[in-house]
Amino acid sequence: MVPDLSKIPDSPGVYLMKGASGDVIYVGKAISLSRRVRSYFQASAGHTPKTKVLVRQIEDIEVILTDTEIDALVLEANLIKKYRPRYNVRLKDDKRYPYVKVTVNESFPRIFLTRRRLMDNALYFGPYTNSRAIRSIVELITGLFQLRKCRKPIVAGKTRPCLNYHIKLCTAPCRGAPEESEYRERVMEAVRFLKGDTSGLLKQLEGKMHSLAEQQDYESAAQVRDQIEGIRCLTQQQIATSGTDDRDIIAAVSDETVVFLQIFYVRHGSMVGKADFSLVGAEGSKEIPEALATFVKQYYQDSPIPPEILVQYEVPEKELIMTWLSGRSGRDVKLHVPQKGDKRKMLDMAVRNAEMAMRVAELHKGPAEAAQLALTQLQEVLSLEKVPQRIEGFDISNISGTNAVGSMVVFENGLPANSKYRQHNIRTVKGIDDFAMMAEVVTRRYSRLMRENLPMPDLILIDGGPGQVGAAKSSLDSLGLDIPLIGLAKRFEHIITPKKGPGEVIILPKASPALKLLMHIRDEAHRFAVTSHRRRRSATLTHSELDAIPGIGPGKKRLLLEHFGSVDNIRSASAESLAEVKGINRKTAERILQHLGANAESTQN
């Protein structure tokens, strides 16, 4: 059912698509809500499989008007974060790495860690991926420069100093000393350290360490030594880059279900850290530019914005995003793709790190987890009411219509259930007719389940194209069963549905987990069918009426059966036809026909 679109205005804003339960399943923005929303319901729009599934789930649409497209962009990102809609590309987790905040907007500034950046005119440094190390550094510099940690308002002479003053970790501006200018000078010395000028602080610490050692206070000297090593370790982790600007470098790779992102943080010309993120709901490498744009909009909602952001692809709505970033940061922000030089090298390094993160994620993903991911994707692609936890796959194997066998394999929770495999010897079909054979096997399987009141599968997979699928569908219809049914054509690995028209074929990316699972089931059904057919044919070749004919050994028997397909066909053949088989002369042919004819007469009598 198409929701009522007549009341949607031709204005900028955000639209919220809702499913049958009333939950928000997709959030989008548009400069013209009317045109954008209507495009979802146009048959000629050429939607991706994911969008087609989304459209079939829409029961209602709510819109929120905004003054500008920028306002719509901000609201869209906030609503995605709030509702986490099923069909939106979204951050898998909202972890934030810590920043060092210096409240230079206060009379007596403090230095502390925070995971959110506010537009409050304070100074922010970071982010730092090693939170333990940076926490230790913040403790070190606040103690060395004797900066206050408390949040209480400064009212000189009216506040009693805390313990930090008495153990000489704070100069206690709350008691009226030092003056604000002197205190701020201490703060700016700490800021110089955070900007990378560590030489002065290291000299001060080394002097303190030697002084303590001379006083034979070796325990305290060792603590200072460890502080020095910590600072040197932090500075050695920085990677020099060209220039002195701040920038973020963002690279992304995809395994067709998750986009893995790597951010390198460059501050004052040095790489100070990196972070890993992932986006879910972005199937296919073609969606990486869109995923990058989505990530930028969601990530920089509450993260510091550098003047330059490097990405590996040109992103959609680039100018709009740059305008929004510039407005948030209060300065021009450049978002571009470097083509050469040191910036390109850093971006390539970020890409390699993202690829490594993807490989590590694959290694830690067990078979059960991977199978559930594939089943969930399969549910979306096929618009199934529930996750197909039980799938049954069928295939037919025969040679020239002889010894035909139908196989049925069962996958539960995305994994093979070998003990539930079944073989069906074809009984009613003579000659070469794969469609009729498939219809017979499907009918026999599900009529038995109905008689024995056993549970039906969530999905049926047929090895074949429209003909085999149509035959299986006819069998289900004759039984009055409505079980989701698809086929998988081997040549192009296209999913065939019983529908007629544009929806008959579904094409998934080769690396899609859903497609890989279907291929596994199809290949397993084929393997089981071939194995069963060989076993039956071997039994036919081993025990035959031909065994009693003098002069017919295993070799000639095999050649005769392979040539004619069955003993009945040999009995109906002429002596001339039999003599065409290698090793069979006219005399032997007549002997064969005489024996088979006599045997047939004795059987009748």
Automatic annotation (TrEMBL):
According to the record, the signal peptide region is none
Residues forming the GIY-YIG domain are: 10-89
Location of the UvrC family homology region profile domain = 249-476
* Gene Ontology BP term (one): nucleotide-excision repair
Per UniProt, residues of the UVR domain are 199-234
GO cellular component entries:
cytoplasm; excinuclease repair complex
Compartmental location: Cytoplasm
InterPro entries (UniProt xref): GIY-YIG_endonuc, GIY-YIG_endonuc_sf, GIY-YIG_UvrC_Cho, Hlx-hairpin-Hlx_DNA-bd_motif, RuvA_2-like, UVR_dom, UVR_dom_sf, UvrABC_protein_C
Q: What is its main location?
A: cytoplasm
Q: Which UniProt keywords apply?
A: Cytoplasm, DNA damage, DNA excision, DNA repair, Excision nuclease, SOS response
GO MF, one term, reads: DNA binding
Q: Name one Pfam family in it.
A: UVR
The entry assigns this protein to a family as follows:
Belongs to the UvrC family.
Describe the protein's quaternary organization and the partners it interacts with. Interacts with UvrB in an incision complex.
Function of the protein: The UvrABC repair system catalyzes the recognition and processing of DNA lesions. UvrC both incises the 5' and 3' sides of the lesion. The N-terminal half is responsible for the 3' incision and the C-terminal half is responsible for the 5' incision.
PANTHER family xrefs: UVRABC SYSTEM PROTEIN C, UVRC/OXIDOREDUCTASE
Name the chain's protein. Answer: UvrABC system protein C
Encoded by which gene?
Answer: uvrC
